[in-house]
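Risk register update: the risk of archive-format incompatibility is retired. Evidence:
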Amino acid sequence: MSNNPVETVSTSSDKVKMALAVFAVIAGIVGFYFLSDKPTVVRAGALVAGLLVAIAAAWTSAPGREFLGFARESVREAKKVVWPTRKEAMQITAVVFGFVLIMAIFLWGTDKILEFVLYDLILAWKR
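Archived output:
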């Protein structure tokens, strides 16, 4: 069996809906800044109205429905995550800090050895 990718073709109405959604978001943001002399409630209302129109337009399009399905699946997968206990998290953190400390000492020692070899032995620079 071959797994041929299936390409979905967006209709022109879906493209118009997505363009409307983008335009509504931009209009909401522009309205928020354009109404700078108005109370904050009015400015926030313009922003929220633009976002709601954008969500409504995107929701009715095929890409919007696909995104909604993706978001639902992401939430479902995130619920399956098994988080480490506090003790495990502290142990892992201690291992990371220990490794960083050992690596810092190693790099410092390597730097000092190279400094000694280059400046004192090879170049014979006296400080």
